[in-house]
Design goal:
Blueprint lengths: L4 E4 L3 H18 L3 H21 L4 E9 L2 E9 L7 H8 L3 E7 L3 E13 L5 H12 L3 H52 L2 H17 L6 H29 L7 E5 H15 L5 E5 L3 E6 H18 L6 E10 L2 E8 L31 H11 L3 E7 L3 E7 L2 E4 L2
Parallel strand pairs: 7-9
Antiparallel strand pairs: 1-2, 2-3, 3-5, 4-5, 6-8, 8-13, 9-10, 10-12, 11-12
Helix pairs in contact: 1-2, 5-7, 6-7, 8-9, 9-10
Length: 404
Amino acid sequence: MNPLASINLSTDLALVEARGKVRTLAEDLGAQAVAGTAVATIVSDVGRRAIKDDLPVTAELAIEAVEGRTIMQVRLSGVSALPEVEGLRSRFGIEAISSTAVDGGRPSVELRIPTSTPAARVDEAFLDRERARLIQRSPGQLLEEVQRQNVELSSLLEELRDTKNALALKARELETVNRELESFSYSVSHDLRAPLRAVDGFGLALLEDYDAALDETGKDYLRRIRAATARMARLIDDLLSLSRLTRDEMHVGRVDLSRLAEEIVAELREGEPGRNVDVTITPGLEAEADAALTRVVLVNLLGNAFKFTDKRDPARIAFGAETVDGRLWYCVEDNGAGFDMTYADKLFGAFQRLHTTDEFDGTGIGLAIVQRAIHRQGGEVRAWGEIGTGAKISFCLASPRIGG
């Protein structure tokens, strides 16, 4: 390492000088701001700790051309390690952090940070000019640097205050929206149900008490009215379920997905005892998840699989898992009606149906509930389908795993 500048980080003024020299290097290189910011931030942090602990620490700054790229380097002598190394690496794009021993065994840490400057710009003449400029910084220039950094700090503090105020406003708006949603949910569950029950009740009374006075067309109309009110009631229930998903508190723990799927399938079989359905469930599937939300997901996915395989004999349904790009995805697959992938983007929208109610019953909100339950747990959900062949709905969670 051939340093352009060496600074003893023993005083606050030295820290300002170090930041100024780093900024000068970055500006003259035309490098992206993050490279200069990374070095300046790390040098300042190490220097402050050195002053606090009364440790002799030196910062050496250098530029190097490597394989067509320009690298900013800093060596911190008197430091054996940097805290939060991985955090620094991801935050600033640091290419390498290494510990060495120089100056007779004195510990040091070296950092290499790539810039966007072509290596062709870094020649000996450039380095000589930079070395001269960095050495010749006067006290007046240092004071100007301090003043400039104070202005920048004031600006950042003002931005932070504005951001804090904006977040507080958004929080108040969200609280208002949540209260309105709760009020709406109450109205839906109470005010809308009463007239629905009245319509259904009077329809039933007409069928029972005036059966002889009605011809078959009249009876058919009344049956349609009662079926529509029943569907509306289910729609209200689904809407309330969708709204509750965002309000109920989550309790994350280990969930046995295989056992949960077996319980749901058993319930579905009881509801349709005469069907020939071959269900395969991979044993030992577990995940860190909210049990209630995960049950909602599997109830809807397995329920859909049963529903859309109604015309298959035998129907085949499978619940398993696969690893894709290092992530574990849980899958519910069937050989049912399937769907056209052209409309896959509409599949998870509320009230979006790719089949008519004459073909399959439902409100068109089940997969919207699935998506919201998965997203609330930090996961993703996706779908594949082919008309007449079947469908496959896959989801992943924030930290899923197989087995123990």
